Recover the amino acids of this structure.
């Protein structure tokens, strides 16, 4: 009786990661898991090289990648080094704003496209703000209105107040991702800077701000949406940017 032939085991290829990728992966996991927290300073390159059993060059390359990915930031000087970056929606908004500003400056996108995205975000955001706003949000919006009321249309403080107005509404929506985008778009483009400003335009935009806030106060989401849509259309119609 013949013996049954034994089957060979099944083998499969495994991915062998380069040392740099292993370093990146472990530090990335430590940040995402909370083992490394915002603001925490990493060990020196020499210490990390000893911990991982790799060269300082490998550590330096891994850290450079993590900086580019937005997880770490390098600080110069005697007390400097590699630190875990803030990963909240404020940091996200700042990164988005910087990227959009660069695209606008090199001409890969135009102002009209940014205005369209702003409309896509701000109209639904004002609806959410009407439903979710707190008394503190209403107080902040009314404070902005009071400050705007006291200014002339060509006052240098107007653009900053406009950014604050729209950012407060997006924050009141309760959606931090939307708030980060709206704030970034306004910080970068500062729509008021691109208006064909006059006393009449200044008065009209202020009245529109008042109408938006009053709709939010009443809890009328449809009215707030309509007021915001009218306001954004007015900004586009009186913009000096034509794309």
């Amino acid at each position: 009786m013949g013996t049954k032939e034994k089957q060979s085991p099944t083998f499969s290829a495994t991915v062998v990661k380069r040392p740099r990728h292993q370093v990146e992966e472990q530090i990335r996991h430590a940040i995402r898991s909370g083992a490394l927290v915002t603001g925490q300073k990493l060990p020196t390159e020499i210490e990390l090289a000893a911990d991982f059993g790799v060269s300082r060059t490998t550590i330096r390359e891994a850290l450079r990648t993590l900086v580019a990915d937005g997880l770490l930031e390098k600080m110069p000087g005697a007390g400097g080094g590699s630190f875990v970056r803030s990963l909240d929606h404020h940091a996200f908004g700042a990164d988005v704003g910087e990227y959009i500003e660069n695209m606008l400056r090199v001409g890969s996108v135009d102002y009209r496209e940014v205005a369209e995205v702003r409309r896509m975000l701000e109209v639904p955001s004002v609806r959410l703000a009407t439903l979710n706003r707190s008394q503190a949000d209403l107080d902040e919006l009314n404070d902005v209105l009071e400050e705007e009321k006291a200014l002339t249309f060509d006052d240098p403080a107007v653009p900053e107040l406009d950014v604050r107005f729209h950012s407060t509404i997006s924050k009141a929506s309760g959606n931090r991702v939307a708030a980060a985008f709206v704030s970034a778009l306004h910080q970068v483009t500062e729509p008021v800077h691109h208006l064909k400003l006059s006393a009449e335009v200044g008065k009209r935009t202020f009245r529109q701000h008042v109408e938006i806030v009053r709709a939010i106060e009443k809890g009328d989401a449809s009215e707030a949406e309509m007021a915001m849509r009218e306001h954004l259309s007015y900004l586009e119609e009186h913009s000096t940017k034509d794309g």
About this structure: DSSP finds ten helices and two strands in the chain.
